[in-house]
Design a protein that fits this description.
alpha/beta; eight-stranded mixed sheet; two-stranded parallel sheet; 12 strands; globular
Length: about 350
Amino acid sequence: MTTYRERPELSQSYLKLLIHDPTSFFEERERSSRIKKHFQVGTACDLALANGIESFQDRLVLIDERPDGVLTRLAEYLIDNNLPATDENILFAREEVGYDKRLKDETVLAKFDSTMRWYHGVLSDLEPNQILLTEEDYDVVRAIYGSLTTNKYTRHLFEPDDNIIVLNHVEVYYDYLGVPCKAELDRIDINLRNNTIKPYDFKTLGYPTRMFPRSCKERRYDIQGASYLYSLSQAVKGLAETSLSVDLQGLTVLPFEFVVETTLPKKIGKSPMIYRMSPNMFRSGMFGTYLDKRYTPSIYSSDVIDGLPASIAYTTPLIPGFDALIREYKYQISLAPEDRGYTRYEDMELSETGALSLEVW
């Protein structure tokens, strides 16, 4: 059976790579599909919150502490690329990860044997469904589980209610502008009293929970929330495939909510938060926004920038949302690989004016 990650549809997490560099998007997408996160605190939290803290004990692999430094990346590179830890491969990986070029080859090999060989062995022995954590990581997972299931503002999410059907790890497959897309929602609640469906995403962050809005900007969680809401809107219309046996058609989709807890041990349990996506956040995530708010359209056309005067489009650059990134993706795949150096609007401005308009504040 093909898993969610193995299916070829485009996810919002990969799509967001286009924000940074269209040139490397296709290479990075291939690389990301190969590389896994070796320490999976977020996965462990998701499983605990979905099925209870005991649900993944048989999959858990604990080590005393997490190795540190660039040499760790060298060991992980070997694993990610299915390379045995031979001297030749270790030295090749050393070049790929940029490990201290001042050291002699024999010094690198000796350091690997003395400090990383054990870690490479742990990673080599891991089964695909196993979860690797340090003892400290596991303490954090248990603390987060205890916090969210007992806090006065979040515990209702984990208390039984005969009128609410809780569905975890819901997959949705849909089309947007002809591009096959996919979404995996941590949880949706179907309320039988009022025929509504509410999506949730559980987030952990290494800062106090009040810093989550900053994380939203940095990691573009507005794009995640907006695209997930759109996927559900298609599902309730019968226009999307889901992993569910439950019929979603006819339900009303409620705003997306993020359930947030910190991973800072001294802060866990102090103030877990539930953040509800506002209409403005949905619009920015779906259709983008502008650095100069005067030019942010309140009603979006089918193609936002193309409907604006060139002077505005060039001098108030769009902070892209899901819609703009899908259009950029379609533009990039229409080009020959050797021509994928610029975004659509960089191509337009450079060809029309000879230079990009530069503003830094």
